[in-house]
Amino acid sequence: MNRVYIKTYGCQMNERDSEAVAAMLRARGYRIVEDEHACDIMLLNTCSVRDAAEQKAIGKAGYVSARKKKQPDFVLGILGCMAQNRGAALLDALPDVDLIVGTQKFHQVPDYLDNLRAAREAGVPIGSSIVDIAAEAGSQNTIRDHLETDEKQVSAFVSIQQGCNMDCHFCIVPKTRGDERSRPMADIVAECRSLAAKGVREITLLGQIVTSYGRRDYAHTGGVTPFVQLIEQVHAIKGIERIRFTSPHPRGFKSDLVEAYGRLPKLCEYVHLPMQSGSNRVLKAMNRPYSRERYREIVDALRAVRPDMYFSTDIIVGYPGETEEDFEQTRELFEACNYDMAYIFKYSIRSGTVAADLADQVPDEEKERRNQVLLDILRRNSERRTAGLIGTVEEVLVEGPDKTGAHFTGRTRGNRVCVFDADPRLVGQLVPLQIERATVSTLYGSLVLSGVEN
Ligand code: 5AD
After folding, report:
1. In the CATH hierarchy, which fold is given to the domain comprising 393-447?
2. What is the mean pLDDT of residues 270-283?
3. Which of 68, 79, 171, 253 would suit a FRET pair with 123, their CA atoms being 20 to 30 Å apart?
4. To the nearest whole number, what is the mean pLDDT of the chain?
5. Beta partners for 411?
6. Domain with CATH 3.40.50.12160 in the chain
7. Residue from 11, 48, 49 to probe ligand 1 pocket by mutation (most atoms less than 8 Å from CB)
């Protein structure tokens, strides 16, 4: 009765939230299982950023609730962004859902499951659901537990902030994640230290707008933002070898952050820099406070500090009113920035956002066409970069066995996945890898053994 399967939709923040829920549940005596067919409790941790993501989770919940006919004690929960966005209204379409928990209440999940189980054991009729999507002061501090696994964890996500106050006109996140709130710097650094002590070598700092971290809580010191101060502190931790973060906002790339890339070697040369559009007119309509020229300036400044910088981005095609000329501006800037990776989204109407009420919606076929144009450019750019890597030696952090178990995987500083043969004792170490060949998504190579050369 205590086997829990958690399915996660959406972003890395959701992955991290699920991991923390799993850790809390395990501490409470629940078992976290990998097989969704062999669980007593299924939790769907959902995403609302586009309609398709919500429909997927609703479809899954509808399908899974049929299980209750055969397994009357089966518990189904919907957590996270869609729970927050839709609340009890989800029960209209999905009356069999037992638990609806919003983004500020993940830490309550163990109590709610205990209560549901106790009610069942006491013979309370099934059908009374628990819904909690209230706001809670301090909830940004509750995502801090890590799941202990048998495998050595080399790379970890650390939540530094919740919510966003930016009001981009397409975006549902301020509604699902609430106001921007930062965790105390000392707590984050303590969490990173304890991860390092357990063998973690790479930290990814997570938040909806990480570059704004701590702006209401900490002073700038000598022109250095609290976000860069936090990076400096994590950088000072012995054992942490690599630092990444996601997602930043272009407005956060002032000189202190750009310069940080010059003086903090653990900061990996991979930046996810959401552009959304390359048209100044559309950026304005989206309420994105930068121009295409400023965006380009940031990319150039970062490449000046780290010539081998890798960039990824988010783009929305077909924002209401986006003309062929606007798209051409996006296409041009997209090509010029030479991305290694990009997430290209067709605009999706999110009810309750400013853009949802705009006339001039772009037809689906046109969105799809624009999507394909950018995907083609991305493929070409990424292939060119890959071809340039073959024959070079890259620093790789060894993460563990690959899916087949026959080889090992790791990542380069530019976040490319590598597959190679290695000794298990190298897990958690930085090794030089000679890149020999590549597919679209993976580099293959062999370790350069020290002492063999020269
Ligand atoms: N439609 C399409 N894409 C969206 N995103 C956010 N809201 C929407 C929407 N309504 C994209 C943005 C954001 C990423 C996480 O999702 O590009 O950066």
Report:
1. OB fold (Dihydrolipoamide Acetyltransferase, E2P) (2.40.50)
2. 98
3. 79
4. 96
5. 397, 417
6. 3-132
7. 49
Q: What are phi and psi of 288, to 5 degrees?
A: -100, 120
- C-beta of residue 279 within 8 angstroms of C-beta of residue 329: yes
Q: How far is the CA of 156 from the centre of ligand 1 (A)?
A: 25
Q: What would the pLDDT profile of 291-334 be if each residue is shown by its tens digit? A: 999 999 999 999 999 999 999 999 999 999 999 999 999 999 99
The CATH code for residues 3-132 is: 3.40.50.12160
Which of 208, 345, 347, 370, when mutated, tests ligand 1's pocket best, judged by the most ligand atoms within 8 Å of its CB?
345
Listed in order, the ranges of the chain carrying CATH 2.40.50 are 393-447
Amino acid at 113: L
Question: Residue 188: which of 238, 227, 223, 221 has the closest Cα?
Answer: 227
Is the distance from the beta carbon of residue 50 to the nearest atom of ligand 1 less than 6 Å? yes
* Residues pairing with 7 in the sheet: 44
Measured from the CB, is residue 49 less than 6 Å from ligand 1?
Answer: yes
Domain limits, CATH 3.80.30.20, in the chain: 139-387
- Calculate how far, in angstroms, residue 314's C-alpha sits from the geometric centre of ligand 1: 8
Query: Above 50 in pLDDT, residue 452?
Result: no
For the cut 90, the answer to whether the pLDDT of residue 124 exceeds it is: no
Ligand 1 atom 13 nearest Cα: 314
Atom 16, ligand 1: residue with shortest CA distance: 49
How far is residue 31's CA from residue 2's CA, in Å, rounded to a whole number? 6
Establish whether residue 13 lines the binding site of ligand 1, counting it when its CB lies within 6 angstroms of any ligand atom: no
CATH number for the region 139-387 comes to 3.80.30.20
Ligand 1 centre from 248 Cα, in Å? 14
Amino acid letter for position 322: E
Q: What pLDDT shows up at residue 453?
A: 44
pLDDT tens by residue, 136-147: 999 999 999 998
Q: Is the CB of 276 within 6 Å of ligand 1?
A: yes
B/e letters for 151-161, b = 16+ CB within 10 Å, e = fewer, are: eebbbbbbbbb
Does the CB atom of residue 227 touch ligand 1 within 6 A? no
Q: Is the CB of 83 under 6 A from ligand 1?
A: no
Residue 149 pLDDT class (50, 70, 90 cuts):
confident
- In this prediction, residue 127 has a pLDDT band, given cuts at 50, 70 and 90, of low
Angle between helical axes of 292-305 and 324-337 (0-180°, round to 10): 10
- Please tell me the distance between residue 66's alpha carbon and the centre of ligand 1 in angstroms: 32
**For residue 172, which atom of ligand 1 is closest to its CA?**
7
Query: Residue 123: what pLDDT?
Result: 77
- The secondary element (H helix, E strand) that includes residue 410 is strand 408-412
